[in-house]
Amino acid sequence: MLKIENLNVFYGGIHALRGISLEVPDKKIISLIGANGAGKSTTLKSIMGLVPKSEGTISFNEKDITASQTKDIVGDGIVLCPEGRRVFPDLTIAENLTLGAYLRKDKEEIKKDRKWVYELFPRLLEREWQLAGTLSGGEQQMLAVGRSIMSKPKLLMLDEPSLGLAPLVVKDIFSIIRQINDAGVNILLIEQNAKAALEIADYAYVMETGNITLSGTGKELLASDSVKKAYLGE
Amino acid sequence: MSKQNLLRVSDATMQFGGVVALNNLNLEVNKGEIIGLIGPNGAGKTTAFNVITGVYSPTNGEISFDEEIIASNYPHGKMKALYSGQNAGKYTKSLVPTPDKITRKGIARTFQNIRLFKDLTVFENVLIAKHLNIKSNVFTATFMLNRKEEQQMREETMELLKILDLEKHKDDIASSLPYGKQRHLEIARALATKPKLLLLDEPAAGMNPQESDDLMNFVSQIRTDFDLSILTIEHHMQFVMGICDRIYVLDYGTLIAEGIPSEIQNNPKVIEAYLGVDE
Amino acid sequence: MTATAFFSYCLAGMSIGSIYALIAIGYTMVYGILRLINFAHGDIFMMAAYFMIFAMVDHSIPWYLSMVIMIVSTVLLGVVIEKLAYKPLRTAPRMSIMISAIGVSYLLQNMATYLFSALPKQYPSIPILNKTIDIGNVSTSLVTFVTPIITIVFVVLLMLLIKYTKMGMAMRAVSKDFEAAQLMGIKINSVISFTFIIGCFLAALGSMLYFTPRPSVFPLAGSLPGLKCFIAAVFGGIGSIPGAVVGGFIIGFSETLIKAAGYSEFSDVFTFVLLIVVLMFRPTGLFGENLAEKV
Amino acid sequence: GCGDKAKEDGKAQTPTGMKVTGDVIKIGVFEPTTGENGGGGMQEVLGARYANQLMPTVDINGTTYKIQLEEVDNQSDKSAAVTAAQSLISKGVAAVIGSYGSGVSIAAGSTFASAGVPAVGCSCTNPQVTLGNDFYFRACFLDPFQGTVMASYAKDAGYKTAAVISQNGDDYSTGLAGYFKKSFEELGGTIVADETYQTNESDFNAILTKIKSSNPDCIFIPSSINTATLILPQIAANGIKAQVLAGDTWENAAIISKDAVGVAFSTFFDENDSSNPVAAKFVTGFKGYLNSDPKNITFNANTDTVAAVSALGYDSYTAIYEALKSLDGKEGDITSIAIRDALKGVSFDGVTGHISFDKNGDAIKDTAYIKTVDQDSLTSKEFKFIKTQTVKK
Amino acid sequence: MTKKSKTICTIIALIVLAGIIFSVDEFTTQSSMLRTVLQLGAIYALAAVSMNLLNGFTGLFSLGQAGFMAIGAYTFAVLTIPVGSKPIVYYLYGVSDVLANVELPSWAGLILAGVMAAFLAAIIGAPVLRLKSDYFAIATLGFSEIVRILVASSPFNKITNGSLGLKLIPAYSSYYTPFIIVFICIVIIGLLIKSSYGRAFKAIREDEIAAEAMGINLAKHKQMSFIISSFFAGIAGALLAMYLGAITSTTFPIMLTYNILLIVVIGGIGSISGSIISAFLVTAAKEWWLRFLDQTMVIAGIHVPFLRTGFRMVVFSIILMVVVLFWRKGIMGQKEITWDGIYRFFTRKSRKGGAVNE
Ligand SMILES: Nc1ncnc2c1ncn2[C@@H]1O[C@H](COP(=O)(O)OP(=O)(O)OP(=O)(O)O)[C@@H](O)[C@H]1O
Ligand SMILES: Nc1ncnc2c1ncn2[C@@H]1O[C@H](COP(=O)(O)OP(=O)(O)OP(=O)(O)O)[C@@H](O)[C@H]1O
Ligand SMILES: [Mg+2]
Ligand SMILES: [Mg+2]
C-alpha cells in the first residue's frame, strides 16, 4: 500500500529524518512510536508533501507520490489528522466536518459518515453549531479525528489522536481506530501512549532521532526490553 | 503544615451565550497543596483557570486569593434568578482584574496550547517574566541607570535556568526546543514571576508515560524548592493520582466530586463520567 | 432643505455608496482569504477604466464587446498580480505581502503614467447607462439606479456562494490555515485565484459604473476611491461581505450628508472620526465577528 | 511689510552660487511630468524645449556657450520636489525654469536660494513663490491679480452671487479661491457657498447638490485639469446652469467637451491675439514644433493648440537667455549669482506680453485673457478668446 | 569576541562613520547629491526606526506615521519661524496674536515637536490601542488623515496658514545637525529596546496573552511604545520640515507612511540596523541613482529605448517588488548587525577558504 524508502528531510540545518524506510501493508494498523522530537510527525508531514524532501521515495499503491502536491495526495486517498488539531476556528463543527468530505461526491454516504462521527463523539452533535475555535482542547481533538474520518480515506494517518482527551475517551479512541480499520481503512498511528499503540498495532516501528531503530509486530515490541524501558515506563 | 487558605473560588459561574461552561464552582487551594482538577473534555477546567487568572471575568461569583478578593461579579435584577449559590443576586460592584494584575498578586499559569515567545531565546523568555517586578521606570531603564537591577534580573534568570536544567539551551530559540523542553520552559517562565500559586494546564500532554513520570518528580520538586501551591489540570491519571493532595472533578461545568486521590479513583460518578472501567 | 434637495442628496449618497460597496467587496474578499490589505485594488479599478478606453475609444469596439474585453482583461490582470506578487509570499511575514501590494499599487500607477501620460482621458459614454431620467425636477442618469441594484444582486449571490457552497466553505477554511486546508484536499491556489477573479470582476464592473458619470480617467483616479472603499470594508468588519456593503453605503451617505450640511472641508475628517468611534464600540467593525481567541 | 529680504531669507550664509566652466551653460527644467499636474508641467517643458531649439547658444565675451537643458521631474509632490531640485543643483545648472504648480516651487524655493541659483517660474501664480526669496522670479501674473480679474469679470457680467470650490491642502487652489472671494465681496458680490474637496477626489455630487440648492450666479473652481475634467460632467449631470469660472490651469485641451461649453477662465496668453507680433511668430513656430513629433502632440493633450503655459515656458527661457546676453561685455565669471543680478534688469517683449521683474521678482503684468469653450471648440479643440481683463490698481 | 574588543570596534566604527560624514562635507560641493541623500536618508532612518519600534518590536501595526510627522513638523515650524518672516508667511490670513511674537530656538522647537506628537499619541492611544491588528492600522491611518486635513482647514488658518502651508522654516544650523540628532534619537531607541521595557514590548509582539499572563500590563506598555514612537516620529517630522524649508499638509500624505513602512520592511521588520541601511539605500536609489531613467538619452545617435519621464518610478516599483519577493525578510530579518555576527561571517568565510588550501 504505502511504501517509504530512504527518506531524508532537513529543516534548515537540522537533519530531521535520516533515511528511514517503512511500509504500511493493506488492511493493517501500523504504529509509530518514539520520544519527543524523534521525527514522527515529520514522517507523516513528508508523506503529505508538507515538508520538502531531500532524498528518498514514497509510493502509494504502486504510484510514486514523492513529488505530488498535497491536494493530489489527499485525492489519492491518504489523509492526515495533524498534530495540534488544526481545526478551522471560524467554522462551525458541522462545517468543519463538511470540509473533511471536501473531495467526496457521494452525498448519501457522506450523510451516513457524519451520523457515524456524531455517534462516536456525541459531544460534537451537542455543539454542532459552535465555532470550532471556542471548543475545549479535547473537543477540538475529537473534531479533528472526526473530520479526518469524513474524508473516507484509504490510508488514515493519525498524529497523537489521544492528546488531551479524557481517559474514557482515550479508551474510545482506540476502539474507534479499530472500527475504522475494520471498515477497510489502513491506519498509520503515532501515539505517546505506547502501550495502547502497540497493543492495537499489527506492526510497529520505533523511531529515535530521525532513524528507525526497531520494528516488529505490536506484541514483539511490547515484549522487548528496550521498548519497555524507554516507552512504557516500566 | 497548618492549613492556611490561599485561593478560594466561590460560586463561580461562566456562561458563553447558551453554553454554561462553569456552573457554580466552589474550590479551595491551601498553602503548600498540590490540587488536581480533572473532568471530561469540555467540562470547564480550562475555563476555571481562565476565570481565576482574569482572562474571563465570571458571570457570577467571587474569587479571593491570599485573603483578598481579586475578582467578583454578582449581577442583580433579572439576572439573579439565573444563578445559584450563597451570594447569588447580591449586587456588588463587579471587580474585573486584568490577567497581569492577577499575575502580580502571585498566581502564574501555563497554557494548554503552549504559548511561548516563539522567536525569542530561552533566556529572554524567562527574563521577560521578571519584568513585572521592575522598579525602575522607562527612562532610567533606557538610560541604563538601573544596572544593578538589570544585573540582578539576569542573575536570577540564570539561576532559574540552572535549576530547571535549561542552561544549555539558554541561547536557543524557544520554538526550536523539543516539546518536553518547551513545557519545562513554560513552567520556568511562570516561576520567574515568583508566584505563590502555580496553575498548570495539562503539563504532561503529549508526553509518554516515562516523560510524564519525570515531570511528576519535577513538579513535586519545584513545590518544595519554590514553596509553591499548585493547581493542575491533567488527563494522565498516573500523574494526577501520583502527585495530588486533593482532587476536584468537574463535569458539564459542575463539581461532581472532591477528595483525596483514592476516594476519587473509586467514586462511581467519576468512573462513569470520566475514568471509565478498566477492562 | 427642500424636499427636492433632500432627494438629490439621497440619490448622490446612494450612487456613490453603492459603488463603494461594490469595490469594498473586493477588498473584503481578498482580505478574508489572504489577510492581505490589497492596496492595489483601487489601481486595478483604475486600470479597468483604461482597458475600457483602449477598447471603446482607441479601437472603436461596440460597448457591449468592450465591456467583455474590459472585464476579462481586468480579471486577468488581477490573477496575474496574484500569481506574481502574492503567491510567492504565501509563507512570508504578513507585512512583506503588504509591501508587495503597495509595490503593485505603485507599479500600476507609475505604469499608467508612463504609458498613458498624467493627463486625464475621457471615459467613453455607454449609451444605456447614460440615459438621463427626470424624477420631479431632479434629473439623474440611469446609472444611479442601476448601480445599487447590481450591487445588491451580487451581494446576495456572493453571500449565498460563501455560506452554502463548498467553494465558499473552502474559501473560509483557506483564510485560516493553508496547511490544514490542503490536508482536506482543497486546492488553495485555485481558491485564492477564484477570490481574485470575483474581486476583480466586481472592480471592473464598479469601474464602469463609477466612470460613466465621472468620465475622466487618470493614473491616480483609483487611489482615493480605493482608500474610501477600503475604509468601508473595515467599517463593516473586514472579511464580511454584508459588512462591506453596509460600510460602503454608510460612508457614501455620511459623506454626502456632511457635505450637504456645508462642511465639505471636514467630510473626510467626519468619515474617519465616525470610523474610529464605531471601532471603539465594535472593535471589529459593524459585522466583523469577534473572534475571541480561546486561551 | 516685506522690505529687507536678505534678513528674512532664513539662511545664515550668503550662497556662493554656481560658476559656469567650459562652454556649456546648463539650465534646469524643474517641472512635474508625472503626478497630479503632470499634464500641464509637460506643456511647459515643451515651451522650454522649443525655446532652446531656437536659442541654442549664447555669445558672452567672445565665447559661444551651448545652452543645455537639464530636465527633472518633481512629480507634483512637495517632498519629492526638494530632492528633484537638489539633483538639478548637483548637475551644476546655472539657472532654473519652473515649475508648474506653486506648491512645488515654494517647496524647492529655499533649495535654489541656498544654492544661489535663480529660478524663473512660468505659471506658478501663488505670491509665496517669490515672497521672501531673492532667487525666484516668475513670468506670469499672480493669484491676487488673477482672483481679482475673475471677480471683476464676474461682476462685469452682472453676477451677484458666487460659489467657490477649492482643493483642501493645495496652495494654488486655496490661495486663488481666497483672492477671488475677497475681491468678489469687495466688489459687492456674495459668496453663497464655499466648498472644498480632497486631493484625487472624483465624486462631487454632494458638493454640487449643495451648490445647486444655494443657486449661485456663477461658480469659481480653481483646480487641476484632472479635477476639471471630472467636475464638469457632474455639473452638467446635476443640471446646474450657473456660469463656471476658473483659473489659468484650465487652459488645456483635455477639458474640452460638451459639458465644458460656456466655462470662462483667465489665462496668460491667447494664440489668436494678433496685436503681439512676437506671439504670432511663436505660435506658428511652436505649432510646427509640436507637429514635428507625434510624441509632442500626445504630451499636448492630442492637439496642436498652443497652451499658455507653453508660452510661459518659452518666455521663462527667454528671460534667462536675455539675462545671459546682458552679461556680454561685463567683467567677471559667469555665475548663477551674476545671472540672478542680470535677471533683475531684464526687459523684453515676450510671447505673453512685455516682461520685466519688480522688486519681488514678479513679472509686471496687468492683463489677463479670458477664454471660453464654445460649440466650435468641440471640433477645433481650441479655446475661444472672449476679452482681455484688466483691473485698476 | 570579548566585551572590550567589541567596545573598541564600536568606537572605531563610529569614528569611521563620523569620518565619512565629515569627508563628504569636506570634499563634496554644497550641491552634491550625496549630501542630500545622506541628510534625507538620516531623517527617513529615524522615521523608520521609530515606526519599527511600534510595528516591528511591539507588534502594533500602525499606519499613522505621516500624521505624527506632520504634527512634529507643524509644531516645529509654527514655533520657530522667525518673527520677522511671519508677515510674509502668513500673508493671506494673518498670524494669530498668540504666535505673532513666538520664536523659539531650533532645539526647543525640536523637543516640543516630539512632545506634541507624543501628547496627541497619548490622547488617541487610550481608545485606539484597544483595537487589534488591522483595525488598529486603519484607525491610525484615519488619525493621520484627520491630522492632515485639519492642519489645512480654515479654522487653523492663523496658526498653520491653512492650505498655503508654512515656509521660511529655519534650516539646519550646520551640515552635521541632522546626523547628530538622528544618531542620538536612534541610540535612545536602541537602548530602550535593549532594556527590560523593550523586552516587554517584544513579548507583546510575540504573544499578547502570554505576555499578559507574565504580568505585563498590555495597555500601559502599548501606550508607552506608541507614545515613544510618536515622539521620535515628531522629531523626524521636524527634521524633515527643517530640511524642506517649506511644508504644507500635502507633504504628509498616506503615501509617506507607506514609503516609511516600505523602508522598514525592506530593512527587516524588527531590526534597527536594517531600517537604517534600507533608509539610505531606498533614498539613494529613488532620488539619485535611478534619476537618469527619467531622461531621454542618446548613445551613439540612438535613442535608448524606454527612457523618458516616469520610467524611474516604474523601475523603482519593480525593484521594490523584486526585493520583497526574493528577500522576504528584508535585508536584516529580525537580526541586528553585531560584532559577533560580523566576526562569524568572516571566520566562516575564511574557514571555507582554508578548506580549499588543505
Ligand atoms: N518547522 C521546523 N523547523 C525546524 N525544526 C523542526 C521543525 N519541525 C520539527 N523540527 C525538528 O525536527 C525534529 C523532529 O520533529 P517532529 O515534530 O517530527 O518530532 P516528533 O517525533 O513528532 O515529536 P513530538 O512527539 O514532540 O511530536 C525535532 O528535533 C524538531 O525540533
Ligand atoms: N469563548 C467560548 N465561547 C463559547 N464556548 C466556550 C468558550 N470557551 C469555552 N467554551 C465552552 O466551554 C466548555 C468548557 O471548555 P474548557 O476549555 O474549559 O474545557 P476543558 O475542561 O478545559 O476541556 P479539555 O479537557 O478538553 O481541555 C466547552 O464546552 C467549550 O466549548
Ligand atoms: Mg509530533
Ligand atoms: Mg482544557
TrEMBL record, chain A:
Q: Which example biological process does GO assign this protein?
A: L-amino acid transport
Q: Which domain of life is it from?
A: Bacteria
Gene3D superfamilies membership: P-loop containing nucleotide triphosphate hydrolases (3.40.50.300)
User: Which UniProt key words apply to this protein?
Assistant: Amino-acid transport, ATP-binding, Nucleotide-binding, Transport
Molecular function GO labels = ATP binding; ATP hydrolysis activity; branched-chain amino acid transmembrane transporter activity
Transmembrane ranges?
none
Q: Which segments constitute the ABC transporter domain?
A: 2-234
Stated family: Belongs to the ABC transporter superfamily.
Q: By what name is this protein known?
A: ATP-binding cassette domain-containing protein
Automatic annotation (TrEMBL), chain B:
Q: Which GO terms describe its cellular component?
A: plasma membrane
Keyword ATP-binding attached: yes
* GO BP, one annotated term: L-isoleucine import across plasma membrane
| Keyword line | ATP-binding, Nucleotide-binding, Transport
Under Gene Ontology molecular function, one entry of this record is: ATP binding
Q: Name one Pfam family in it.
A: BCA_ABC_TP_C
On the tree of life, the source organism's domain of life is Bacteria
Q: Does the keyword Nucleotide-binding apply?
A: yes
What are the ABC transporter domain coordinates in residue numbering?
7-277
Q: Which PANTHER family match?
A: AMINO ACID ABC TRANSPORTER ATP-BINDING PROTEIN, CONSERVED COMPONENT OF ABC TRANSPORTER FOR NATURAL AMINO ACIDS-RELATED
Protein name according to UniProt: ATP-binding cassette domain-containing protein
Q: Lineage of the source organism?
A: Bacteria, Bacillati, Bacillota, Clostridia, Peptostreptococcales
From TrEMBL, chain C:
**A GO biological process held by the record:** L-isoleucine import across plasma membrane
Designated name of the protein: Branched-chain amino acid ABC transporter permease
| Keywords from the UniProt entry | Amino-acid transport, Cell inner membrane, Cell membrane, Membrane, Transmembrane, Transmembrane helix, Transport
Q: What is its main location?
A: membrane
Q: Which GO terms describe its molecular function?
A: L-isoleucine transmembrane transporter activity; L-leucine transmembrane transporter activity; L-phenylalanine transmembrane transporter activity; L-valine transmembrane transporter activity
Entry's family note? Belongs to the binding-protein-dependent transport system permease family. LivHM subfamily.
Q: Which organism is it from?
A: Aminipila terrae
Query: For this UniProt entry, which segments traverse the membrane?
Result: 6-27, 39-57, 63-85, 97-119, 139-162, 191-210, 230-253, 260-281
What are the subcellular locations of this protein? Cell membrane
Q: Which GO terms describe its cellular component?
A: plasma membrane
Where along the sequence do coiled-coil regions lie? none
Q: How does it sit in the membrane?
A: Multi-pass membrane protein
TrEMBL record, chain E:
Please tell me where this protein is predominantly located.
membrane
The entry's cellular-component GO terms read:
plasma membrane
Instruction: Give GO MF terms, alphabetically.
Output: branched-chain amino acid transmembrane transporter activity
- Looking at the keywords, is Nucleotide-binding present? no
Identify this protein by name. Branched-chain amino acid ABC transporter permease
Looking at the UniProt entry, the stretches that span the membrane are: 33-54, 66-84, 104-128, 175-193, 224-246, 258-281, 310-327
Subcellular location, record wording = Cell membrane
Q: List the Pfam families.
A: BPD_transp_2 (PF02653)
Keywords, A to Z?
A: Cell membrane, Membrane, Transmembrane, Transmembrane helix
Regarding the membrane, this protein is recorded as: Multi-pass membrane protein
Keyword Membrane assigned:
yes
